[in-house]
């Protein structure tokens, strides 16, 4: 039980890196001593604290390629390519361990990274890449042993969850909340990947790969984002007993993998519907533990830095991944979104005249779609000639719904393109 | 990355032990081979599977005292004394590692067990002792590093949560649901410790000891159970926007420790209020991660067995606890329940006549208690001469409330002893 000295090199000191330095400074353990041998950061900054007095400072992370004096490379630069990719692969080739928060890289190069780990008997840890404040990787790798995971779903992006929550609570449209969120630091200046579902798809790809040993890639997940969600839909959904959340869903169904990313209606009673603001929430369904549910802050320097520190310390304690499982990654067929069999929320904007409902119903009949509920909203304001009709459906095939909507959108009483949002029945 | 062979001896094959054997049989890893060298079980049973063909069978767990051919003792007998205590202490004295699900033992002998671990450089793991399906010990020990925990609270007992949930959903009183629960296997034949809060207090004691390095003992926690909760209180609470849950709460407040176990009203919007049936739910509040929330099944063979297997495998991978922190357990003063400053739900059963409210209000004034809301229920059925008055209060000191209630209960218009349930404001 003698003390272990571990040398780490940190690449990238942004928000998370700054948080990590603070956590390392405060970390007290007589078992593990963390020695930061090098820091690579483009911006010159003051590094303070006795614990950094012998630390080398590199302006360019590439200098780490010819640097060897570390046990663990901590990569906090981000991005699926560029210098982040170079230094991570370089470190693994040098048989060094790596800790990263880089979801894009891990999602895209899962197979290559795993095979390099296995070949070189070193370890890549990436707790911080998925849901910063939730130790979901640890739970899957170290806790749910012998449990067969059936499905994982959840809110994986704090920014979009914040926007959806705030739209409803402050009665404002998407764009106005996005601007507020950017001012408050909850959304980046370019929030595209958070909002269009790319970030969620990357995290989902990692969870799917891990849970099902799936030789997967984020690129193959077709994601929809929250930019099409209107305040009116959030409100109608609420009146029907639902909340709208951007979900990532991965599951095994008859030896085929489903990986879906889209905003959807969820019963207000469901675990995930309760997760608001910048929080992330993840449900893991397994054979022996049935349902496990984890909630934590999904963004911010400190929750993510907590994940990074946890990986560093656990690696230093000699904890190894169950590497051998990666020697035989499986190939599964994917269930495409067109194969989805599920229900829908539909909002039609039509002329306010007779024949509308029967026109819609006729197309539904053609494609085996049956209605579950219908609601005609009374019009207020300027649009007195428009009618808003909201229909929820029973389960149907996605491809049938898309064909029906295409036809319906061409009918002469339709004023605006029909809004469709999927409904998920997770409890 | 060569394969590790680990030898385990299992004491006690009841529900959890049976589940564990199944999980071990299914556990596949080329890194860790689990070899069950001995099983002690009072009841003779069929052990099947190739993996048990070389296993010794003891009828009396005491035989393990003179048995040495194991790396890890897995103690699943339970109870704070007797043979369970003997074999656990014996194993640690032999410098063997121990995995246990025994909350009573760990809660009561925390200090002794920790000092023995530290002295003998061996490890006791007890994930299964607190909230079977939630890896809460792992989260605190391995994830929230550098985070200072401020407060942990949650639903720690599946049986009592099941009873409270079912009373409301099936509109039945406590006793009737308890009988159903026993038939369904959700409550033991002697459910005293589950219902009176003892089980929650033991688990809370462990969490408190771990989170605050507190030299604590379950015995010092004054617990209240759910047997006094009536259906009418669940219903009124619901109409006021609350749910009633049996909580364990541990927190540091000005260097003093609060350890409370009681049923209380919680806003329906709070994380924990959403946790129903046999599920457990735990919130950890820390400085850097703010709020983390974990939900999982609180009872049953498999979630608990999952925790035990997780401990076995993690120990086998050479993962050590941060033992040194236990060399200096801290002593804190405790905040007693009498010191509690909080609000109350009160249900008075009185004569249906004038002067009642003013009589109650007079006593409140004397003890600096101020009302937040008042509700007089219309009487139906046989009790037409009784009035039911429900009052919620602003924060006040527990000792003042107890004095006021003592006086109020002696007033001549009071027909039944006044029901009080605390209100907690966790979000």
Word description of this protein:
2 copies of one chain form a homodimer. Helices cover 33% and strands 28% of the residues of chain A. Chain A is α/β, with parallel strands linked by helices and 427 residues long. The first copy, chain A, has 3 domains: 4-129, Rossmann fold; 136-298, Dihydrodipicolinate Reductase, domain 2 (2-Layer Sandwich); 338-424, Alpha-Beta Plaits. In chain A, β14 and β15 form a beta hairpin. In chain A, α1 (15-26) crosses α11 and α6 crosses α7. The first copy, chain A, is elongated, with a radius of gyration of 24 Å. The interface between A and B is large, with 52 and 52 residues.
Layout: helices, strands, pairs:
2 copies of one chain form a homodimer.
Chain A: E1 4-11, H1 15-26, E2 32-40, E3 56-58, E4 72-75, H2 82-93, E5 97-100, H3 103-108, H4 110-120, E6 124-125, H5 136-143, E7 149-155, H6 158-170, H7 174-184, H8 192-195, H9 198-212, H10 231-239, E8 242-253, E9 256-267, E10 279-286, E11 290-297, H11 301-316, E12 333-335, E13 341-351, H12 356-366, E14 371-377, E15 386-393, E16 396-397, H13 398-409, E17 414-424
Parallel strand pairs in A: 1-2, 1-4, 2-3, 4-5, 5-6, 9-12, 9-17
Antiparallel strand pairs in A: 7-8, 7-10, 8-9, 10-11, 13-15, 13-16, 13-17, 14-15
Helix pairs in contact in A: 1-11, 6-7, 12-13
User: What's the domain count of chain A?
Assistant: 3
Q: Which CATH architecture of the largest domain in chain A?
A: 2-Layer Sandwich
Q: Gap between N and C termini of chain A, in Å? A: 46 Å
Beta fraction of the residues of chain A?
25-35%
CATH topology value of the largest domain in chain A: Dihydrodipicolinate Reductase, domain 2
Oligomeric state: homodimer
